[in-house]
Amino acid sequence: MYDKESKNIMHIKFYGTYNELSKIIANSGYLGAWHQQAPEDRPTFRFNNGAILNWWIKTGTVQFQGQREAREEVMEVFIPLLFRQPK
Question: What is the residue range of 49's domain?
């Protein structure tokens, strides 16, 4: 879990598809852009508020980064949405 007091970055799992994750982000109202990292199984979404979502497709790991306020804002919205996805 993410602990605001210790400033740890939370790692969660998302086992859906790229299209499903893209749809979740698009429906959230947050703006930004996808960037493909090398290796190609790690797409990154950079939110306009400065937060970053990294997703490792093979393992399903999702990691949130960025400045604390931006990261926490995005995490509060997206973590519940990602946990609703079936495994």
Answer: 11-83
